[in-house]
């Protein structure tokens, strides 16, 4: 033997076997190739064995190429036989299988069984014992993937445990009852429920005349099997125990009725050509069927066209050799045109397949009894395909209880799991890479010239094998047409659903397959299904579905669950649901055809009302004291969400970002302009906090146009003001100034005092940001006068805070501190948590600049708690930068580094490039002081690039410092002896409000 995989992957060397010949991943790759010796293993399959999902390298093929090169070198270095060949996207290891311990083990067990059948029980036992010595460790120990674990589980059962069964049989035949009992007990430590082991243990106990222990063990196993829901195991052992006692007492074993010899049917459909995917599910199914299968009920469900039948038939062909009594298939047509097949028809067809139908009595009950008798001594593999529901096959199950029965349905057959112990599995759509691989295999060499088109076509099929099959046949029949043309054609709405391959009426489009499931729903559930087709996003909340359909949450919950169980909808985390892409498109078609325009308009209005009022409640919770967006009246059947605190409101907005964007686009496309500008103004500021620049800027431009289209001057001016604020938040000051001036003119023309105060406040903040301190303070004083006349505490606090920022940047630290304290007190009075945190964060900066380090630390920590609660990610990052700078100045470089790294992470998450640049600058200063000069240079390079991108003047200072960079002459190992130096660069940005 030269190779071992029953443990770490080991190679024969001069001093014995070694597993230290290569890195673990190299050993893992060789283990898979040795396991499949002589067979080509495609790169994608090899990658699935070696890496867990999501942990594979960016280019698995390149990485595997490196590993196989190293494996070849190791084999050559150790002088071992075998060739590792590369073959068209696959690897094959060519060697004598008997040079590998696992294959040698299998060969030895097979030889031992032959010796036993020839009468040499002693030689057979000796050979199996020597084979089992090879299995002394955990097989494939270098592989930790799910695929490897599934293989270990099946191999342990079918190979290792089966070998022990054979050894026990041989020992008992040789009269080695004590050794058999010892071995049975040892193996049962990990396999206590195996009924064959239990039989061998009973057999040894009875032979050793330990009858009391035998009876006690029998009752113990019997009760446990019953409690575990495995009555067939309990009954099997009971019958065996009775036979043992009869023999021991000199009586003959009980004679059980034996059916007449009948034909063994071999009636499976053709296996699918080029079947791909579902490896894990097939492994799970394999695990249920041992070499000597037990009676089982298996149910497969999944959405229409997902390949349930193909999977069931493919798997049946894999295991058919384990069913010498026959395999039989029937399509019960539970979903489809025409009548479904009844249980009575199944009985007649199966009797006919067994060639006993001529002897059948005429009554249905007699035929059932006849079939039950025939199957009492036979075990078939029975596939009952396309079942309508559990009731469709319930009466058949007692008749087939001795066989392995696989049922497929579009519904989840939970009744069979609860009432009959069925193992239920859901067949999922193919993963994208498998769908692409299938298309490439189907279409051949023409795919190599247009790989992007292949990827797009595969994506349009949504991983549904039926859709892939129709598309593949449609394209294959037109070999002269470029694949890119097909991609464009199939991109059109409804193109994939309506596609038919060929002119035969026997082929139906995918939409007709979906029709069968749709028609099987109740009228109320059909209505919900098609209305959900109007939803513009990808994942929707239960409450949104209730609003869309005009139902209570309880009513919609029941109907959604029915759609999930019908596999027309997927349940997601929490109370969320999603369509498969093609089912969403199909639901939209059904809405267009089965709902009137008026009903669709009402449903759209209810959905937009729900989002608008939910966003308004989130806005009110986050910005409790701010001026409200005026609301529209809410539809009677709409119940918007409520938020317990600021954090939950911010989380909802962030989580729903993609769907909010889709809903806003939906409102614009359907002409709901009044909803549109309100929605955008409700979510704009929180989205700014979360750093979604492009969405906010584009959204506020749309809000301006929407308000203008409905001739609402105040809404238009307010949207312009908010658009300017968005530009300013993202450091686009020229654009911000243009928006502010236009909004100011409109507010002055309409005499809106609150509008004037707000836009002047924003203009003052913008002047501060560009360094025009004196001009900023003049504008802010004017704004404060208007706010004081209005009596608006929120407006007054915001203006005072911005005056404080201007004064701080102008060097008037005492005046700035007074303004911040005044703003703080007003914000406490109105309960503005985010505003309080902002004012405290700015005060922390003032204290730091005044040299009050401990005061700054206290204030910055308090600010961070409040800003985190309010979802102010960028300002929380700013407070972290302040903490880092203070700890830097105090000489506590460990804490300084922690806070600086946190500041970088937070400002990066918020997409606030200015504050991120400041955080990188301070982190560079800390690392310089630690003696980590290369790391400091990396931080300053990042800070320079960020400042330069914003055209900030601080970029030139950092650039000059980097250009003058000279790496200090530090003896190796002496970096800690260097006195900490502070970089000449400092950059703590300005917290906004």
TrEMBL record:
Superkingdom field: Bacteria
Alphabetized SMART domains for the sequence: BTAD, TPR
Annotated SUPFAM superfamilies: C-terminal effector domain of the bipartite response regulators (SSF46894), P-loop containing nucleoside triphosphate hydrolases (SSF52540), TPR-like (SSF48452)
Domain Bacterial transcriptional activator: 100-245
Ranges for region Disordered: 969-993
Name assigned to this protein: BTAD domain-containing putative transcriptional regulator
């Amino acid at each position: 033997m030269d190779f071992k995989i029953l443990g770490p992957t080991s190679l024969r060397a001069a001093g014995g076997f070694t597993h230290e010949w290569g890195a673990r991943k190299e050993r893992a790759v060789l283990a898979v190739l040795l396991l499949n010796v002589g067979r080509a293993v495609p790169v994608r399959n090899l990658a699935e064995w070696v890496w867990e999902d999501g942990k594979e390298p960016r280019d698995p093929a390149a990485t595997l190429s490196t590993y196989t090169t190293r494996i070849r070198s190791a084999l050559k270095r150790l002088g071992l036989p075998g060739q590792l060949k590369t073959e068209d996207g696959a690897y094959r290891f060519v060697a004598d299988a008997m040079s590998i311990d696992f294959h040698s083990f299998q060969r030895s067990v097979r030889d031992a069984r032959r010796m036993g059948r020839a009468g040499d029980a002693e030689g057979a036992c000796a050979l199996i014992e020597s084979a089992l010595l090879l299995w002394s460790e955990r097989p494939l120990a270098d592989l930790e993937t799910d695929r490897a674990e599934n293989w270990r589980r099946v191999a342990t059962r079918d190979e290792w445990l089966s070998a022990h069964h054979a050894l026990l049989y041989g020992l008992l035949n040789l009269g080695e009852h004590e050794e058999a009992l010892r071995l049975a007990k040892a193996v049962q430590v990990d396999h206590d429920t195996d009924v064959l082991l239990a039989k061998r243990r009973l057999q040894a106990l009875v032979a050793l005349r330990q009858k009391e222990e035998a009876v006690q063990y029998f009752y113990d196993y019997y009760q446990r099997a019953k409690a575990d829901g495995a009555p067939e195991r309990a009954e099997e052992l009971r019958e065996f125990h009775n036979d043992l006692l009869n023999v021991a007492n000199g009586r003959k074993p009980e004679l059980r009725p034996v059916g007449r010899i009948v034909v063994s049917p071999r009636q499976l459909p053709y296996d699918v050509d080029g079947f791909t995917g579902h490896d894990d599910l097939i492994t799970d199914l394999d695990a249920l069927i041992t070499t000597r299968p037990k009676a089982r009920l298996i149910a497969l469900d999944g959405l229409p066209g997902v390949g349930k039948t193909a999977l069931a038939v493919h798997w049946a062909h894999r295991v058919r050799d384990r069913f010498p009594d026959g395999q039989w298939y029937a399509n019960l047509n539970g979903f489809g045109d025409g009548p479904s097949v009844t249980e009575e028809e199944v009985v007649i067809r199966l009797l006919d397949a067994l060639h006993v139908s001529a002897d059948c009595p005429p009554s249905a009950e007699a035929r059932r009894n006849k079939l039950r008798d025939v199957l009492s001594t036979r075990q078939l593999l029975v596939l009952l395909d396309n079942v309508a529901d559990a009731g469709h096959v319930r009466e058949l199950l007692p008749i087939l209880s001795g066989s392995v029965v696989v049922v497929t349905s579009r519904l989840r057959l939970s009744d069979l799991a609860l009432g009959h112990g069925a193992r239920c599995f859901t067949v999922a759509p193919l993963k994208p890479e498998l769908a692409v691989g299938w298309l490439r295999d189907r279409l051949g060499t023409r795919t190599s010239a247009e790989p992007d088109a292949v990827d797009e076509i595969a994506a349009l099929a949504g991983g549904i094998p039926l859709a892939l099959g129709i598309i593949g046949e449609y394209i294959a029949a037109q070999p002269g047409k470029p694949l890119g043309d097909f991609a464009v054609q199939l991109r059109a709405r409804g193109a994939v659903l309506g596609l038919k391959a060929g002119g035969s009426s026997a082929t139906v489009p995918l939409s007709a397959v979906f029709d069968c499931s749709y028609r099987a729903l109740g009228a109320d559930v059909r209505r919900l299904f098609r209305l959900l087709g109007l939803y513009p996003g990808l994942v929707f909340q239960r409450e949104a579905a209730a609003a869309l359909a005009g139902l209570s949450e309880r009513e919609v919950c029941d109907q959604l669950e029915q759609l999930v169980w019908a596999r027309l909808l997927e349940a997601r985390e929490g109370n969320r649901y999603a369509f498969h892409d093609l089912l969403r498109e199909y639901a939209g078609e059904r809405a267009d055809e089965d709902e009137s325009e008026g009903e669709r308009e009402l449903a759209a209005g209810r959905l937009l009302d729900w989002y608008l009022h939910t966003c308004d409640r989130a806005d009110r919770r986050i910005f409790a004291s701010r001026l409200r967006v005026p609301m529209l009246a809410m539809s009677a059947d709409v119940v918007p969400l409520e938020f317990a605190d600021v954090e939950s409101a911010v989380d909802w907005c962030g989580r729903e970002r993609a769907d909010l964007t889709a809903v806003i686009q939906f409102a614009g496309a359907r002409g709901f302009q009044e909803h549109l500008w309100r929605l955008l103004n409700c979510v704009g500021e929180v989205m700014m906090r979360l750093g979604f620049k492009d969405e906010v800027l584009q959204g506020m431009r749309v809000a301006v146009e929407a308000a203008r289209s409905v001739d609402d001057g105040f809404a238009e001016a307010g949207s312009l003001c908010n658009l300017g604020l968005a530009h300013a938040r993202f450091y686009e000051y020229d654009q911000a100034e243009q928006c502010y001036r236009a909004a100011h003119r409109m507010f002055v023309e309409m005499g809106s005092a609150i509008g004037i105060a707000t836009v002047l406040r924003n203009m003052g903040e913008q002047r501060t940001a560009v360094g025009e301190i004196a001009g900023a303070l003049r504008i802010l004083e004017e704004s404060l006068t208007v706010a004081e006349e209005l009596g608006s505490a929120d407006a007054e606090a915001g203006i005072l805070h911005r005056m404080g920022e201007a004064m701080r940047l102008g060097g008037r630290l005492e005046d700035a501190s007074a303004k911040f304290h005044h703003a703080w007190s007003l914000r406490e009075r109105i309960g503005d948590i985010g505003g309080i945190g902002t004012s405290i964060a700015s005060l922390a900066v003032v204290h730091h600049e005044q040299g009050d380090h401990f005061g700054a630390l206290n204030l910055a920590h308090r600010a961070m708690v409040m800003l985190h609660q309010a979802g102010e990610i960028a300002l929380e990052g700013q407070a972290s930068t302040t903490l880092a700078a203070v700890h830097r100045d105090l000489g506590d470089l460990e804490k300084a580094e922690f806070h600086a790294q946190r500041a970088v992470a937070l400002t990066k998450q918020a997409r606030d490039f200015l504050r991120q640049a400041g955080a990188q600058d301070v982190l560079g200063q800390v690392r310089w002081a630690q003696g980590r000069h290369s790391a400091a240079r990396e931080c300053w390079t990042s800070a320079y690039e960020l400042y330069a991108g914003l055209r900030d003047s601080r970029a030139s200072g950092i650039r000059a410092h980097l250009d003058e960079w000279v790496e200090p002459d530090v003896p190796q190992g002496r970096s800690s002896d260097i006195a900490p130096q502070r970089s000449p660069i400092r950059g703590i940005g300005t917290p906004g409000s």
